[in-house]
Amino acid sequence: MKTCLRFISRFIYISAERNKVASFVSSVRYYNAAAAKTLSDCRWEEGKSSDTQKWSSLEHKGPYFPPEYEPLPDNICFNYDGKHTTTSSAFLTFTHRDSVQMCVCVCVCAGQPVKLSPVTEEIATFYAKMLDHEYTSKEVFQNNFFCDWREEMTKEERKLIKTLSKCDFSQIHKYFVEKSEERKNMTKEEKQVLKEEASRLMEEYGYCLLDGHREKIGNFKLEPPGLFRGRGEHPKMGKLKKRIQPEDVTINCSQDSKIPAPPAGHRWKRVQHDNTVTWLASWLENIHGRPKYIMLNPSSKLKGEKDWQKYETARRLKMKVDSIRKQYRRDWTSREMKIRQRGVAIYFIDKLALRAGNEKDDESADTVGCCSLRVEHITLHRRLDAQEHVVEFDFLGKDSIRYYNKVPVEKQVFKNLKLFIKHKDPEDDLFDRITTVKLNKTLNESMPGLTAKVFRTFNASTTLQDQLNKLTTEGMTVEEKILSYNRANRAVAILCNHQRAAPKTFERSMQLLQEKIQKKKEQIEEAKKELKEAKKAHKDAPSDKSKKLLEKKEKAVQRLGEQLKKLQLQETDREENKVIALGTSKLNYLDPRISVAWCKKHQVPIEKIYNKTQRDKFAWAIDMTDENFQF
DNA sequence: GAGTAGACTTGCGACTAAAAAT
DNA sequence: ATTTTTAGTCGCAAGTCTACTC
Fold this sequence. Notes:
Radius of gyration: 31 Å
CATH architecture of the largest domain: Orthogonal Bundle
Oligomer: single chain
CATH class of the largest domain: Mainly Alpha
Strand order of the largest sheet: 10-9-11-12
């Protein structure tokens, strides 16, 4: 019923704006019916302006500001430099981290208790809260933190506090540990109150009115201040992420809408009415000085439409990919170095689903993608493990996730790579004659809208469809089909190198599962024995009662067998998923219509594949895809 | 072209709520 | 009923790519 209502409301929504918006739905249907028509044909129908104009009316309440800092109670002290008191000098050689473990000692023979100014104290709490995190022991983190902290101190504080290792945050740390403990032990009623408060907030700030329709906002809460922790070896880790003031925030909404009110006594940096962008509010983040935005939720029409476009572009690549592949193969033997490099780079992007690899400054972790690969990131093997022309990749990619792969490549690629690295140092660029901009320009000439990342979408979706076809057979149970789906999903995640840290409890939970399986097997043995006896009893002295018993035992064996199978499926699935993250590809790379069609074709309920949030995001695909959809 | 700013997508891990096990 | 495990959500960092300027 709910689904039905949603569908109806969608329909009303769409019909209400037949002229402008209907094209999203109708052109999808239209597109399905006549695959030969391109996406750009569809877009032209909407009128050219729709490409740049993102809305015609936009109203919202502005961002939600995190609560002001609450100073620590007076009995919680920050202590500095224990040497003036009775602390033994041996203690002073400990770092501040060790001092946490030495808490008892510190409390007894504490250094100077220092009452910090609210600003300084707040920053101290950021650090104190992180104390049992490994990265507070990193030098870069400590230096960045201390540097930024001192900058915010009063003159007097700065004069006193000169060395981080003399800072004792242990009381503050303890205070917050206790607080979080308290929060955990709240009663049901208290939790309920909090929940209601949250939903009230959501109600007030969580939605906007876009072209007359209420749409969910993705991140209506401004990011609270804290210490920056980049990923990998980030040179800026530990720096202070400042509190965002209304005076930092630009509001974007329509001219005639109710302009959101800034918090009392404040004003916005700016209020603008730019309908060529989709964001509602923005500010400059102080770590890198880059803009951040408040935008709509993925379930919104604006985002959904964009998502759909992305997959349509990938489907157009499908039609074009053969000729593009032919072209880059030709480029491998070009007289021009830059064309050869381009040819090999596109080959990697296509074959290995590498990211484009933009230039990066040294203010961020040292990670690379295709175009920014350095000589040191590949090793060439003429022969390796009975394979010829193997390239061994080893580099850190996005989010400092390691990409490690040994790939046999075509002879000409191998030859080219040898050429590219000739007379170069390890830290030189492998592709020194190309950039992502040039590469994308070339791609765009082959097909409008084509960029490096389209290959990832295209290869991911193609792989999913192929794998699903290969792995699903009729006669499978729903559970088996789901395992097949997960395996297909996994093939994509591996292709895209979507990794995760193995869950902390992995080994233990795996062991538990194995024990369960063992137990189940024993139960089956037992049940079989009983069945045998029942059979014999029935044969010896057939009666209604014995017959019933026999049937009962048969059923028990069967049921246990099914349970065992289910457990074994679970085991396989979990083992194979140990370090693979399926979420990213599911959410960003796999055309949802493939999954919807598969579910329909094989009678798998869509709820088994997509949870509620995912169903909201992919509502467009769920509503309009039939079982015959082909990517 | 090269460099930069801006806008938008992609990505992992931490936290939290719900479900399952005890 | 309580504890443990799992699934789902949130937070925000880190990419891609385009447009603009010089």
